[in-house]
Design a protein that fits this description.
8 strands; 4 helices; 25% strand
Length: 167
């Protein structure tokens, strides 16, 4: 099974942070990670941005209640606490997720965000873009594109004990 290593992921996060820093403009971005891997990536990116002198903010949201497949699941998913210590009104938000595929998770994230307020701008950033959209949603930034991969599993040190992308 091919994989991206921890070195690949670390390099990608540095390029990603450089991209956000270069595009942030006068308003510092607020990174909002989608729980459970997007929040880890958003936390890492926020730290990398702060080391570059960009005063980015960090938040995390649980999109479970906004998913369109809740009734199709055999088991009810566990709800987790969102952490959004700032108003989203008139903010430049960057939604961060690990894998973008169908676009359904991103749609749920947008619905969740608008429950908190009305941001001025929302971007979608992901570690891996798999293609295969079911909704008209695209990534504003993707660290890796793996459209031919049948399955993609992202492992992060904080949640899985290692950094790797298996596909």
């Amino acid at each position: 099974m091919p994989q991206l290593t921890s070195t690949d992921i670390a390099s990608a996060l540095e390029r990603w942070a450089d991209h956000i820093a270069a595009c942030s403009g006068s308003k510092p971005p607020s990174l909002v990670g989608l729980i459970s891997h997007g929040d880890v990536l958003a936390r890492r990116l926020t730290s990398a941005l702060q080391k570059r002198g960009v005063q980015a903010q960090y938040g995390a949201i649980d999109i479970t209640l906004y998913r369109d497949d809740l009734d199709l699941r055999k088991e009810r998913p566990a709800l987790r606490s969102s952490y959004l210590p700032f108003s989203t009104d008139d903010m430049h938000l960057i939604l961060v997720d690990d894998v973008l595929q169908s676009g359904r998770t991103a749609r749920a994230a947008l619905e969740t965000i608008f429950e908190y307020g009305r941001p001025a701008r929302v971007e979608l950033h992901c570690l891996v873009d798999r293609g295969r959209r079911e909704l008209p949603i695209h990534a504003d930034y993707a660290a890796f594109t793996l459209e031919s991969a049948e399955k993609v599993h992202v492992h992060l040190q904080e949640t899985d004990g290692e950094d790797a992308v298996l596909y």
